[in-house]
Description:
53% helix; 2 domains
Amino acid sequence: MASAAFSPTLYYKHSGKFFWQGAVRAVLFGVAVGLPTAWVYAWFIHWDPFIYFNLLAVCLFGSIIGFVVEGVLESGKCRNAPIAFLVSGLAAFLCYYFSWAVWLHAQLGFSTLAFLNPDHMFAVMQTVAAHGAWSLRGSTVTGAAVWATWTGEAVMVTGIAMYIATDAMLESTYCENCDQWTKETLGAAYISAGSASPLDENLGYRKYQKLLKAQAVELKQHLEAKDLKYLEHLGRVEFDSVAWYQLDLHSCATCQMFHTLRVKQFQRKQSGKKITDDTDDKEVMCQLLLTTPEADQIRGVRQEDAADVAALDG
């Protein structure tokens, strides 16, 4: 298969290669880390009365599995996002199933092993749903509301794991010629996104938001056309800038011939008539293929602005 570095397409795409041994190992590692995480999660859900903390626990549970699975897949040189999606989903499902057994043990006191039987578990779940396992505003939650909550919890745990593993896989790049992952350089360059109108001019500020969207589209078009001089046209990032672009590079450390570009637009948040230190970011483009001279040109664009942007980020 030809290297993506010499592909006629504009954007890098994974080759789709993977090794089934690596996929199996990712499931095993995901489960090995996920089972103790599931045990802690189940007991936390059992004891914690605050729904917001429970939601955070759900997100953390799924995230841990997603990151572990994706890391193991990358170590096994998997370049296949659908495989990352399926493997992380399987690992998350197995771990979530185990968390159910632990939670039922915590609720009812019977052995966790007894609840690993699917038929037994489902029968007990029906009983628990009918009688309720928690209360909300003084009323016991039962029936359809319980099943809806459990379904949402299952979707969140598995969905978060699958999203994290798949998204991380899609954002990584691989040099097929050198048979290795590329190295990322965050902030290879910073470019201005213009100056905002005074904050007391609300109409002007809304117009600025529209201009930012249009500018991002125009920037993407210029970069796809490999018109890198347009970056100079946008100018330097000033210390008091409200918005700017960050250009990140992925490059092969061995051949130095394979490069991809990601561009993010950062904007400081507005609170009333004040600009805060917090920022929102939006991806403008990802995985644009570059030649070595083009990557060098990106690196040479206004490097002196990095200190100003670091100060802006706090």
